[in-house]
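Prompt: May I have another protein with tokenized structure?
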Amino acid sequence: MYKHNQPLQKPGTQLNLVYAIIKKIWVLDHTMTDKTAKDSSSKVAGANPTKISKKEEGLALLKDIVSIIVFYFVFTTFAWGAFHIPSGSMEPTLEVGDRIFVSKLAYGYNRYSLPLDPKSVGEGRIFSDTADRGDVAVFTLPHRDSIDFIKRVIGLPGDTLQMTNGRLYINGSLVKRTFIRDVNYTDYNGIDRRAKEYEEELPGGVKHRIYERTDNGPVDNTNLYVVPVGHYFMMGDNRDGSADSRYLDNMGYVKHEHLVGRADITTFSLYDCDQGKEVTCPLGIPFGRFFNSLN
């Protein structure tokens, strides 16, 4: 069964990498300082007293790097977090290799908004705000090792949802979808795929693209879902390639407290231009995936 649900990369991983780089620079700086001191002791008096030493240069460089790290920490905590897309569950909205900015302010702040997920911070939110239907949201699942996922908010608290013959019903009404085209492409695992691309219009007017390979898949005929208070129903835009809230024993309903932020824009992408999709790729660079609004 084809289901993509690999976790997003956490910003904390990037911080660990930067810390390792700073540590190496610090060691290198001390090595250079020791060497400079030995060389200076062998020189005659009268050297230029205003010349900046290697140690001062190293300390200045270290201060600059620390300033960048502090700015990065504040930026990714209170403004936008940076993530990359590792799987195809949100195709065609998001492609494997896309880099995105996620607004932390959109839903307010709690422990899941912070890098490294500190256990000492509670789940209560400050500046809390609810998600809107159609948002592309990043969230965490504590029962799955607190890894992050990205899906579209389809159901709001109190909604009923059901899949019947591949069609989505929300609160008893059939969600409109309009056929766009047939798509043949090679996915990131090298497997040839065929899908139909539709434009779906959710209640409230949000329009977005989805992929459907069949209307008779494992979760194309379901029981009625009732979204609990304080929860959301999430679905991937690649409807037959997403393990989402339709699988109650896997992802299920997502608590409001577990939201990380709203994905607003792609920044750049390492999308594989050989997949065969209609993506602008001059010289093999997927410029067509750069700076795309997601909401």
